[in-house]
Amino acid sequence: MLDAIAEVREELHALHRSLVDNALVSWTSGNVSARVAPDLMLIKPSGVPYDELRPEDLVLCDLSGAAVAGTLRPSSDAASHGYVYRALPEVHGVVHTHSAYATAWAAHGEPIPCVLTAMADEFGGEIPVGPLAPIGGDAIGRGIVETLHGHRSPAVLMRNHGVFAIGDSPRAAVKAAVMCEDVARTVHLARQLGESVALAPQTVDALHARYRNDYGQEEA
Ligand SMILES: [Zn+2]
């Protein structure tokens, strides 16, 4: 168990680096968590800059967001990450960023419409907007779960705040956060040219199914 958690620490540390490498975070904002047991998660400590973050600094928490080991305080979003893990047993990774283009859509309070094949692939439709929720408790987590219910999107734009993305692994959640920013930027640029052309729902369904089932390499 401890060896397995040590391995996840290394992976989660690398994923925090990839938020920086993909220009999704500034200073100390943003965080990634990983479920390491049915009722335990690792998450970024509060207020630690990315260039100072070490694998051993990631805080082991229960799903109420309380630290169960170490001396560092977990991210102020820990209770919300924990709420998501409690509500959605299939989720093993949660990411939060204030990435610029996606957060601009969140400030605008408008879902990103599904007008790109890449969006149909990854999100299976629009990227929805969740409520403005207070930071610190689990209200953001409740907003994430309620908003994503009935959507295929693994990402949600929390109004006036930023992006939360979920996945069956922390890497999948980071991928969704990266793709969310990518499509937020492209759809924003498309808007500068005028009206975008919507994809028909059956086209979105077909693209999403193909991407889920046929894209990439066969698993060995
Ligand atoms: Zn935030």
TrEMBL record:
Protease among the record's keywords?
Answer: no
Where does the secretion signal sit in this chain? none
Reactions accelerated catalytically: L-ribulose 5-phosphate = D-xylulose 5-phosphate
Class of enzymatic activity (EC top level):
isomerase
Cross-referenced Pfam families, in alphabetical order? Aldolase_II
Write down the superkingdom of origin.
Bacteria
Alphabetically ordered keywords of this record: Isomerase, Metal-binding, Zinc
The biological processes this protein is annotated with in GO are: pentose catabolic process
User: What cofactor requirement does the entry state?
Assistant: Zn(2+)
Gene3D superfamilies the record matches: Class II aldolase/adducin N-terminal domain
| Gene Ontology annotations for the cellular component aspect, listed alphabetically | cytosol
MF term (GO), any: metal ion binding
**Which NCBIfam families does the UniProt record give?**
PRK06557.1
Q: What is this protein called?
A: L-ribulose-5-phosphate 4-epimerase
Originating organism: Streptomyces iranensis
